[in-house]
Amino acid sequence: MPEVFLSRQPLINRQNRILANRLTLHLPAGATADDAIEALRAVSENWPRNEKPVFLRCLGGPAESLVPGGDAPPSATFELPGKAFAGPDAAALIADLQAAQASLCLMIDEHASAALSSGLSFRFIGLDAQRLSPDQLKSMAAQTQAQGIGIAFNVADRQTFQTCIDAGLNAAATWFFKRPSGPSAKALNPGQAQIVRLLDLVRKNAGVKEIEAALKQDVTLSYKLLRYINSAGFGLSCEIQSFRHAVTILGYAKLNKWLSLLLVTASKDPMAQAQMHTALCRARLMEILGHGLVDKNEYDNLFITGAFSMLETLLGVAMDKALETMNLPEAISGALLGQGGMYAPFLELAIACEGDDGDAIAAHAGSLGLSANAVNLALLQALDFAETIQI
What we know:
By secondary structure, the protein is of the alpha/beta class. About 45% of the residues lie in helices and about 15% in strands.
């Protein structure tokens, strides 16, 4: 059976928050619609549990490959181009969609009028920001407003994102926020430096009183730490009430992992929520993928590597500057600085799962001996985890 890999992309709204998530199925040569549907069925039990829409599309096969037969995943929205409604099979496609009562996103093209006159209800209307000029985006957004919620796709940079929002569209599918928005600072700011100090104290097994004293210098840090630990994604059976309680329940090794989240959430960028979500998803994905491939003692380090992979953007400083005072294990710093090491293949795979190159995802997964199903399951579990952490 052909290996069908998933990748993901967020949809960012005008408040710079993640409105929805987009999953792409990468169909290799020779794969069929049945292979695409089977790949979805294989991960159905791990489908995101939150109420955010999940957009679905296929690359390498016809867009209508995923037309549901009555067992569409919850919250799924199927992307379909107008041309799918202009061919000889259009009538059958329309009948299938009406029977399934699926949530649909119409991707506007030269055949869009055929889709809009089909009698189908479209929840979303997708516009290609790469193909349309700013004036055309504004015009099309106004024309299709009554047909569905306007969404932009193929949004490559911050300026195009703002153009789409100014045109009246509600959100855009994009990764522009992974790049720093300005020149790098020369050093960490005082708040960031304080978190690094806390991390060093934990790694050195400093006394609980000394760490508590450092936390009390910034009450917000204590609040954030307890909020993260008590998030649903952590799965504790009791609520952690204090740092001392956290040490008793978790131990220093686990606290190191969760204190690392404080540094990840130190960004003041307007896109901080989307950046943190990306860091968390990478972190959990790498941690899950490591199961059975590295020693159990390495799992938390894989998590930290993924979380810290966005530090340059989150903190606004160059990666080497961010790491120079942190005394991280060589395997973590090596992966983050592009110097290789045992964690690097996991980070490369996590980043590939954010792109449109299915062959690259397959190659990175193959280097680790991972199947498409294993990667896809881990990706959905990681996405669900990121959604449950209270950022």
